[in-house]
Specification:
The structure is a single chain. The chain has about 550 residues and is an alpha/beta fold. Helices cover about 40% and strands about 20% of the residues. It contains 19 helices and 21 strands. The strands form 3 sheets. The chain has an 8-stranded mixed sheet with strand order 12-11-10-9-8-19-20-21, with helices on both faces. It has a 7-stranded mixed sheet with strand order 1-2-3-4-5-6-7. Strands 15-14-13-16-18-17 form a 6-stranded mixed sheet, with helices on one face. Helix 14 links the parallel strand 14 and strand 15. The longest helix has 27 residues, at about 85-110. It is elongated and about 85 Å long.
């Protein structure tokens, strides 16, 4: 019976065999096919395919993406990728750039700990390789800084060592989507190695299946028979194809051989035959494997440019995005009438479009104008916030269903109204909201951020007890709203109402009040012009700012 190996590494990542040497070794071992699945790179595939010409072996173009889920390193293998496509190569460039920045920082830390190393020296010692911590360990060993690879990890580059720099990773759900878009078969690699409880692993597999997972690695070098049976049960439960691989690295994993692992591994060609059938089905009916998305985008600093408009390129991308069945949600700290006015003056007339105002306090369906959800501060809470703001000498206002409600006409209100055109009612007792409350209050201090911070310190004990959130949308504006509200809560609520998995949501923003939204979504996009804490919370950061169609350029790869 023919055998295959669908998880193999070369010198292009952290293996010890070149792609050409792998081909010769696979033929020697009697394989009918193997997949070259180097970490985050496809650099060795052309060499391997060329070396296989005229030989009784199939080289399957693949990759192994490193991703992160609930603090764990999760790997997603992709098979039969269109690895030369523009889309896929753009994704790899992003990974490479992230690795370079991380590796430069690790070299700097090693220098601080007495190691004579530069990033350029490291790359020259391992030409053509995707640099991983295994390369650092080998460098430290060959240059006499340590006596073993284990010591290199313990002293310098292990997870808890002083020179380790974690690399910001994509989610496994995003890895699955990238592989699907590149025409490949996404497979959850070696799930037993994640040491999850059965319930957590089941949850992960269910989530990945929801975004398009096709296979799971049920045959693997280190599995005991009971572990293989467990993964096969998961595969059957979620209708996933079986895959298998040795995870061969050559001398980097002593004792683990190609095709046979530690001596008991056997992957019949039937496994590959079934995967090929599924791949043919995917190509014949791509619509069956497509998952529509819902985009939640902040307005100022994200969707809108400095003129409060959108560029022609952004409009073109949004037309394509919505035409292909995806949904658009404008999500802002602004009052709902102001969000509606943005939709109208931009002439955004897309089907199944939604508006979220007041930092998640109200959700409106555009087609009907109906409010789907609303949560508000009580009248008594609003009055307390107003009195506290007045004691600090700060501007305060709140909102009715149709108007801004402000106790006085002052400079801060005029500053706010340069952008927000919602009409104002001057109201001392705020009787307009006595029965229904208000979704949000806004406290403003122009160029007096330290006074806003003092206000936050004084109000925080009461706000915490009342379950009220205080968050800065910029240095001048302090948003005050129910803690059960928030943009993140609105993402989850609208997904629930529309029966859409949050894993299929995208959220984009630039300011502190966008963080909960970015964290709640399946894909979180931070604008490069955004704050550092937003970037830290996001899955990806745009290459261009809001004045240069930054969001649209990222969305292009998600359409």
């Amino acid at each position: 019976m023919n055998i295959v190996d669908l998880h193999v590494h070369s010198t292009k990542s952290d293996g010890s065999y070149t792609p050409s040497e792998l081909v010769d070794y696979a033929v020697e071992k009697g394989l009918s096919a193997f997949a070259l699945t180097d970490h985050d790179t496809t650099a060795g595939i052309d060499e391997a395919i060329l070396a296989a010409q005229g030989k009784p072996i199939e080289v399957i173009p693949g990759i192994e993406f490193s991703s992160e889920y609930e603090g764990r390193d999760i790997h997603i293998v992709g098979l039969y990728l269109d690895y030369k496509s523009d889309f896929f190569q753009r994704r790899l460039v992003n990974f490479v750039n992230g690795r370079i920045m991380r590796n430069q920082e690790m070299c700097r830390r090693l220098q601080e700990h007495g190691v004579s190393i530069t990033y350029e020296e490291l790359v020259s010692e391992f030409p053509g390789s995707v640099i991983t911590r295994a390369h650092y360990a080998r460098y430290l060993l060959s240059h006499g800084y340590v006596k073993s690879l284990k010591e290199a990890f313990d002293r310098y580059v292990g997870d808890n060592a002083p020179c380790f720099v974690p690399r910001k990773k994509i989610t496994p759900m995003r890895a699955v989507e990238i592989i699907l878009k590149a025409g490949g078969i996404p497979i959850l690699a070696h799930p037993i190695l994640y040491h999850m409880s059965s319930a957590r692993l089941d949850k992960l597999v269910a989530s990945l299946k929801e975004v398009g997972l096709i296979g799971i690695e049920a045959i693997y070098s280190t599995y005991a028979p009971s572990e293989e049976r467990e993964i096969r049960r998961l595969a059957e439960k979620y209708d996933l194809c079986i895959s298998g691989g040795s995870d061969f690295h050559g001398s980097a994993k002593p004792g683990l051989d190609l095709a046979t692992g530690y001596g008991r591994l056997f992957i019949p060609e039937e496994v590959l035959v079934n995967l090929k059938k599924k791949h043919a089905e995917m190509k014949a009916h791509p619509e069956a494997f497509h998952r529509n998305k819902i985009l939640f985008t902040d307005l100022d600093g994200t969707f809108l440019n400095k003129e409060k408009q959108i560029g022609d390129y952004t409009r073109e991308v949004m037309d394509t995005f919505t035409r292909t069945g995806n949904k658009l949600v404008l999500c802002s700290g602004r009052d709902i009438n102001s969000v509606r006015s943005v939709k109208e003056y931009l002439h955004l007339d897309y089907p199944e479009m939604y508006l979220i105002g007041y930092n998640g306090g109200q959700i409106v369906e555009c087609d009907t104008g109906r409010t789907l959800y609303r949560i508000a501060l009580s009248y008594e809470q609003v009055c307390h916030i107003r009195e506290a703001a007045m004691q600090h000498g700060l501007h305060f206002h709140t909102y009715s269903d149709t108007n801004i409600l402000s106790p006085c006409d002052d400079e801060e209100l005029h500053f706010y109204q340069r952008t927000i055109k919602t009409p104002v009612i001057f109201s001392q007792d705020l009787h307009e909201i006595r029965d229904c409350g208000a979704c949000k209050c806004l406290v403003i201090a122009i160029d007096r951020h330290e006074e806003l911070e003092a206000f936050v310190r004084d109000l925080s004990p009461w706000a915490e007890k009342e379950q009220i959130t205080l968050v800065f949308s910029n240095n001048n504006y302090l948003e005050v709203f129910p803690s059960a509200s928030g943009k993140g809560a609105a993402v989850l609520k609208l997904c629930e109402l529309l029966n859409i998995s949050p894993l299929l949501s995208i959220a984009a923003g630039d300011a502190g009040n966008d963080i909960s939204m970015i964290e709640a979504a399946g894909i979180g996009i931070a604008m490069c012009n955004g704050s550092d804490d937003v970037k830290a919370a996001a899955t990806m950061v745009t290459a261009f700012d809001n004045n240069h169609d930054g969001l649209a350029r990222e969305l292009l790869d998600l359409v």
